[in-house]
Amino acid sequence: MPARRAGLGALPWGCILAWTAAVLIPTLLVIAVILPWWQHLQVLDADYERGLDQLVRYQRLVATLPSLRAELAREQANDDFKAFYFDAETPALAGARLQSEVQEMVRGAGARPISTQILPVDEEEQPQRVRIRTQLQGTTDELLDLLYRIESARPFLFVDQMSIRSTTPRRSNVRRRVSRRSSQREVGMLTVRLDIFGYILGASP
Length: 205
Hints:
Blueprint: H1 2-77, H2 79-82, E1 86-87, H3 91-108, E2 112-119, E3 129-138, H4 140-151, E4 158-166, H5 171-177, H6 180-186, E5 190-201
Parallel strand pairs: 1-5
Antiparallel strand pairs: 2-3, 3-5, 4-5
């Protein structure tokens, strides 16, 4: 009788373990499948939210383009705005104007122009630059006067490169070949090379 009771008592525990395994194993399998899928959905939702936020920002930027273009057109039509640029149809015309203006500045400063050449235009620049290279002779004061004229010019002009070389002859040669007045002029004489550029508005290469 005791052995029989022990056998009967062990049977319910075996059933419980069997039912527990039958329920637990499918549950673990479902969790193993659903959990990565759910995490992937969370990542997709976060990406969607970021993409939606970026889309809203881009839409706002696109919406401002017409007003920005209108503002740019108003500024380009403004005479004050044009005063900063050479208003010429081609870079060649702007270069010729720049060349003429610089030569006038050199003479106005009292220096002597030697040569002036228009440098090539980089068609990929926006806005494009027109550049010239000029060589002149003058004193230090005349060079400073010229640089001031370039700084004050309208349209704006900029000095890209500057090379200065003294051309003062030796004193013994000066005494033999020139008078005292001309030697005073030659003392401190400089040979200067300047690369000058300005911007061109509305140019068509």
